[in-house]
């Protein structure tokens, strides 16, 4: 009991130094909780943005746009109990050209042909699409942040069908055809008879001074056909927009119906055999997207089932065809595999934060080490008296371990409470700072985050607590050992 009494007396004897040490630990723990929580939230949100509309798993081929029998393969994959949706797609790069008042504008885009209804079953495609009123509001207020996809109601299957449907396309054309009747009457007359296929552009391609096209305009795309080995050009009508929150996706991506994409890239192969090995012909696509019930636990088994049980039968059909048909080398890949470079950047940021945690914990240990060392120097004679009257070295050691532990635990508790409270109200605090300074931690025009993302994970709290206590223990250990090894006679005569 007297050990606690002595430890408390030493702690309060120089309360300013002890208080300063507690404040230092509080600030360290507070900083660790806030920084780790914000970076964790930022990483989670960036990971979600990087994933975009990608499905859990894709089936594709080494050669681009070369997967045959996609409907049959997709039907077999859909029968697997762990699969919740499949959707074929075509993906290719294309040169973009649009007529503007200043002349033709040329750029490049990633073109993705999808079956809109099935695409909504394998990713967040339905949530990223913009309704006409949402798009109109964005176009009226281009300088304001765009509502996050998470805060918008996803499109229903009926709404998706109408967006890509003929009635909507005709309405958009009638509302915007006047500019083409005036400046390109021959083209307008041709399009009046047969409208170009519809496309959905990323929102960043149709707003701002660097816009590539406008809503309701006709654009020209040029791509390479791997089946024919030649360039293909097509014209398309912009009937809508999408917003993922990732600038590159929203600037450089375009969606069109799967059939239009197949025709645009000329992916028809007349020699493809049917189940009876007759050359019935068919379309090739880039791949099939697959959604799983539980990505983490089912991705590996599903991938192996598709690669070893389903795909070999279709490769064998090509090998057994009577006519010479182009081979295809299929494989499966997870969305993380496709986005590995961007995800690696997020992991590097987490590694930097972990390093910061180590440095701050070392600082906590150093503060406690200095406080205890100064206390031992000041109380050296008292230590000698304690040992002279019978206190064991282990008792002296315990006194200073308790002293350092009290500083560490007090700082940890107050740091935890203040850090969690700050994280809970961080956006309200940020709003006050912005009102005074107009400074934002994550500018919406760069990160598309109108709020500071915070994710408090139990493991992070355990790690911060463990490292802080460990740092405090190490900081207390050396001074406590030094105090315990003091010679009582030399200590008493030191003053």
In words, what does this structure look like?
This protein has two domains: 2-48 and 343-492, no CATH class; 55-338, no CATH class. The chain contains 21 helices and eleven strands. The protein has helices at residues 2-13, 15-51, 70-78, 116-122, 125-128, 132-140, 157-163, 166-176, 178-183, 185-193, 247-252, 258-264, 295-319, 335-338, 340-378, 380-388, 393-424, 426-437, 444-447, 458-484, 488-492; strands spanning 57-61, 83-100, 103-114, 198-202, 218-225, 230-242, 253-257, 268-269, 282-283, 287-292, 330-334. Strands 2-3-7-4-6-5 form a six-stranded mixed beta barrel, surrounded by four helices. A two-stranded antiparallel ribbon has the order 8-9. The radius of gyration is 33 Å and the shape is elongated. 37% of the residues are buried.
- Any idea how many domains? 2
Strand fraction equals 15-25%
Number of strands: 11
Protein structure class: alpha+beta
**Separation of the first and last Cα atoms:** 28 Å
List low-confidence stretches: none
**Which strands sit side by side, in order, in the main sheet?**
2-3-7-4-6-5
Oligomer: single chain
For the residues shown, what is the average pLDDT? 80
Count of helix runs? 21
Radius of gyration: 33 Å
Sketch the major β-sheet.
6 strands, mixed, barrel
What fraction, in percent, of the residue positions are helical?
55-70%
Form type = elongated
């Amino acid at each position: 009991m007297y050990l606690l009494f002595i430890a408390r007396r030493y702690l309060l004897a120089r309360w300013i130094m002890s208080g300063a040490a507690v404040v230092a630990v509080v600030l360290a723990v507070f900083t660790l909780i806030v920084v780790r929580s914000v970076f964790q939230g930022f990483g989670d949100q960036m990971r979600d943005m990087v994933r975009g509309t990608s499905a859990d798993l894709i089936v594709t081929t080494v050669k681009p746009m070369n997967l045959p029998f996609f409907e049959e393969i997709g039907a077999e994959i859909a029968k697997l109990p762990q699969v919740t949706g499949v959707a074929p797609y075509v993906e290719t790069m294309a040169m973009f050209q649009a007529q503007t008042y200043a002349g033709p504008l040329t750029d490049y885009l990633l073109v993705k042909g999808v079956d809109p209804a099935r695409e909504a079953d394998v990713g967040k495609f339905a949530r990223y699409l913009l309704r006409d009123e949402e798009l109109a509001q964005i176009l009226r207020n281009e300088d304001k942040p765009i509502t996050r996809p998470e805060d918008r109601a996803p499109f229903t299957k009926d709404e998706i069908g109408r967006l890509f449907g003929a009635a909507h396309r005709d309405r958009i054309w009638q509302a915007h055809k006047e500019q083409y009747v005036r400046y390109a009457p021959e083209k307008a007359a041709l399009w009046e008879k047969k409208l170009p296929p519809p496309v959905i552009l990323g929102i960043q391609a149709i707003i701002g001074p660097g816009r590539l096209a406008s809503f309701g305009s006709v654009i020209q795309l040029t791509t390479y056909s791997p089946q024919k080995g030649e360039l293909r050009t097509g014209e398309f009508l912009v009937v809508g927009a999408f917003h993922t929150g990732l600038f590159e996706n929203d600037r450089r991506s375009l969606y069109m119906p799967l059939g239009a994409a197949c025709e645009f890239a000329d992916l028809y192969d007349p020699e493809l055999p049917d189940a009876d090995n007759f050359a019935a012909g068919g379309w090739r696509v880039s791949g099939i997207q697959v959604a799983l019930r539980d990505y983490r636990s089912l991705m590996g088994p599903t991938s192996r089932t598709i690669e070893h049980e389903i795909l070999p039968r279709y490769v064998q059909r090509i090998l057994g065809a009577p006519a010479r048909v182009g081979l295809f080398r299929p494989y499966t890949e997870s969305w993380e595999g496709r986005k590995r470079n961007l995800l690696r950047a997020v992991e590097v940021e987490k590694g930097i934060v972990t390093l910061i945690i180590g440095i701050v914990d070392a600082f906590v240990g150093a503060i406690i080490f200095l406080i205890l060392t100064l206390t031992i120097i000041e109380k050296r004679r008292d230590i000698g008296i304690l040992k002279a009257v019978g206190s064991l070295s282990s008792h002296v050691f315990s006194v200073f371990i308790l002293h350092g532990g009290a500083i560490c635990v007090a700082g940890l508790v107050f740091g935890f409470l203040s850090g969690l409270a700050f994280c809970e109200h961080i956006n309200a605090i940020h709003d006050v700072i912005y009102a005074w300074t107009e400074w934002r931690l994550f500018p919406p025009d760069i990160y598309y985050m109108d709020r500071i993302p915070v994710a408090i994970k139990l493991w992070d709290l355990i790690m911060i607590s463990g490292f802080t206590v460990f740092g405090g223990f190490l900081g207390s250990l050396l001074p406590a050992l030094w105090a315990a090894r003091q010679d009582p006679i030399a200590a008493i005569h030191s003053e």
